[in-house]
Design brief:
This protein is mainly alpha-helical. The protein contains 20 helices and ten strands. A hairpin with a 2-residue loop joins strand 8 (318-325) and strand 9 (328-335).
């Protein structure tokens, strides 16, 4: 293996490796008769070989391809945010009780997988930029896609760890001893990538479905980033643009259709089929493996109590099993947004990255901060109506009441998706009050995960987060 940037060991994604993952990505990019071997110089000689590398970026293969492959983006912050508890006894429990150490394997995986995946993204960006044979329009498309993916990774990294090394190259000599870059500068890179991506991407998706970013994918992600940065007007404008112009629409005929392949609500999905016939990572992690087994991740009473009577999200997006605990039957609920542990089960599901319901809630929150409370409540009520609920009782004359209603709606709509609840508690400054009231152990230092100790040992320029 080759030692690459930031002391993370991966195999450079040559075409031979990528070809092995194509069976799970045929609908993403059709690559007829890919060659079995290719040199790095030849990788970006034409659109066909370049698309092979691009396919590898999106492949759900753990340790290579899309960083979400092992679903830890969902269940680890879900433990921290008091959405779920974990039954087995191992170091994942540390996320729930805020006893993380720099040796925790989950915290290391979040870091490592994102940087490994980032290496592939940077390799494609560099290869496309240096190619003299690819067309200008093709280079624009691929560059915009990869900038969107990289922005997503850095958005996750900065929210999990705060300051992180900012790596935009595959040159190990330039990156092997990089220090942590301040969070503000990381956000600047995220915004630069998304701004450039929006200039390069078109409104048309570049392949079937919504499986590769288009203009509105980058716009939706930028709306989310601006929301986190309190850039309310920009967040509102971008979310409004996606809602009005993207062509996406909320699924209205059944919540169980939201996460299916080809969902009208999807702004960005990743092909769900994994190696060995597994379904999307969330389904594999959350659904019991057989009728005689039990879920490892159980929804907490705190989250269950957030659902109102008649909420169809509780009905359709959770499932339950009865388990005997200390001689007493207990009904335990688990996340059930995805239904298929196996890719062979129909209808097919894809891993959702961004969807329109979140964009409505982004526009609502931005509108509330801009004191457009009527618009904010209208957006909240669109989401509530879809869930089978009446209009919000929040007063249109009270900004705090409207903001509380929005965050509550985000809790029940976006639970166990992409760490949204964990991020929301931190960015709104409510983590200590809410989590501290529900369980013991939370301190302000727990808001950031520890930098993995093995990385600090390999790179003396890295510093540790406070409290670890």
């Amino acid at each position: 293996m080759k030692k690459i940037s930031f002391n993370i060991y991966i195999i450079v994604a040559g075409l031979a490796l990528i070809a092995s993952s194509l069976s799970s990505c045929q609908k993403l990019i059709e690559i007829p008769n890919p060659p079995s071997a290719i040199t790095q110089d030849e990788q970006y000689a034409d659109s066909l070989t370049t698309l092979s590398a691009v396919t590898g970026v999106y492949a759900l293969n753990s340790g290579n391809g899309f960083a979400y492959s092992n679903v830890q983006f969902t269940f680890l912050p879900g433990l921290s945010a008091d959405e779920i508890t974990y039954v087995p006894v191992n170091d994942y429990q540390q996320f729930y009780n805020y006893s993380l150490t720099p040796l925790n394997s989950g915290a290391a995986n979040l870091w490592n997988y994102m940087y490994q995946s980032m290496y592939q993204v940077n390799a494609v960006l560099g290869g496309v930029a240096n190619s003299n044979t690819l067309s200008a329009s093709f280079k624009k498309q691929i560059t915009g896609e990869m900038e969107t993916v990289r922005a997503l990774y850095y958005f996750s990294l900065v929210n999990f760890y705060g300051a992180v090394p900012l790596i935009t190259t595959t040159d190990q000599n330039a990156t092997v001893s990089l220090p942590r870059t301040p969070a503000a500068a990381v956000y600047n890179q995220i915004m630069a990538d998304l701004t450039d991506a929006r200039k390069k991407l078109t409104a048309t998706y570049p392949s079937a479905g919504h499986l590769r970013p288009n203009l509105y994918t980058a716009t939706a992600l930028q709306a989310k980033v601006n929301l986190y940065l309190s850039n309310w007007q920009n967040a509102y404008n971008e979310a409004d643009s996606v809602i009005r112009l993207s062509g996406c629409s909320l699924v209205q005929t059944g919540l169980n259709k939201v996460f299916l392949d080809g969902s009208t609500e999807a702004i960005w999905q990743i092909p769900g089929a994994q190696a060995f016939g597994s379904g999307v990572p969330d389904a594999v992690a959350f659904i019991p493996s057989s009728s005689g087994s039990y879920p490892n991740y159980i929804i907490t009473p705190f989250l269950l109590n957030a659902f109102e009577a008649g909420d169809q999200r509780l009905v359709n997006w959770t499932a339950s099993k009865v388990r005997v605990v200390n001689g007493v039957n207990q009904t335990q609920y688990y996340p059930y947004k995805y239904k298929n542990r196996l890719s062979s089960v129909t209808p097919a599901e894809d891993q959702m990255v961004l969807r329109l319901a979140e964009v409505y809630l982004i526009r609502a929150e931005a509108a509330a901060h801009l004191n457009n409370l009527t618009q904010a409540l209208a957006d909240v009520n669109i989401i509530r109506s879809r869930a089978g609920l009446p209009a919000s009782t929040a007063s249109a004359s009270s900004q705090p009441a409207v903001l509380t209603a929005i965050l509550k709606e985000r809790q029940t709509e976006m639970f166990c998706e992409w760490a949204n609840r964990w991020y929301d508690l931190k960015r709104t400054g409510t983590a200590a009050a809410i989590l501290g009231a529900e369980k013991t152990g939370y301190t302000d230092n727990a808001a950031l995960y520890p930098v993995p100790q093995p990385q600090i040992l390999l790179n003396s320029q890295l510093s540790q987060n406070p409290g670890y």
